[in-house]
Amino acid sequence: MGITLSGISKKFDAFTALGNIDLEVRPGEFLALLGPSGSGKTTLLRIIAGLEFADSGTVAFDGQDVSHLPVADRQVGFVFQQYALFKHMTVADNVAFGLNVKKRRDRPSRQEIQARVAELLDLVQLGALGGRYPAQLSGGQRQRVALARALAVGPRILLLDEPFGALDAKVRKDLRRWLRELHDRMGLTSIFVTHDQEEALELADRVVVMDHGRIEQIAEPHDVYAQPASAFVYDFVGESN
Ligand code: ADP
């Protein structure tokens, strides 16, 4: 599903968090939003999800204006840095939560939910762990539960906000490769927020470099690396040479 952002602006009091953002995300694309802390990445993601509304501009999915739709009507999956799992619920119940929040009229039966949860846990390779509680899982496993919950609504768009930020380097590397495979297999359109240049350059089809609420560069990873338009990326390329 394609995503079109046209003239998106957002202020918090007098502070401009996003200034007139235009962006076309292609169907099936894996896009990284890269930039320093405070550059507006999370705000942009929240506006695409419907968790926040822009002051001006429009968000369209496959050409349909969704700017005024609330999050529940946009059918997007959302994964946060800190998992945001319910501690008192089992893994299976956490995943089922994604199904239960569906609108009443198309809410599935209990049996359907159980079958779907089993399917989702298999998909994220946690089939045997449905009865555990989040505290009994590793960080990488918790993030896969969060992903299964996000996928429960059958989204065609997946939005990920620094999803591996809390994990150590090895787990992070394995998980991002696996996520990329999942994205390809499910035909998703994904936007991935990160301030980790290596992650963005390795994972994404294209990288959007943001700074001060504006887009500094949109390019394929090797072009961002070869010709960094932003001091933020330039520092990184300089460092690794
Ligand atoms: P990033 O994800 O790139 O770190 P954010 O989108 O979180 O950046 O934030 C962009 C700027 O907007 C930051 O300066 C932040 O402090 C500010 N901001 C974000 N959300 C709010 C809010 N709800 N109220 C006030 N300021 C906010």
UniProtKB/TrEMBL annotation:
GO molecular function: ABC-type sulfate transporter activity; ATP binding; ATP hydrolysis activity
Listed transmembrane segments: none
Entry annotated with the keyword Nucleotide-binding: yes
Keyword field contains Transport: yes
Residue stretches making up the ABC transporter domain: 3-237
Keywords: ATP-binding, Nucleotide-binding, Sulfate transport, Translocase, Transport
One GO location term (cellular component): ATP-binding cassette (ABC) transporter complex
Record's protein name: Sulfate ABC transporter ATP-binding protein
Organism lineage: Bacteria, Pseudomonadati, Pseudomonadota, Alphaproteobacteria, Sphingomonadales
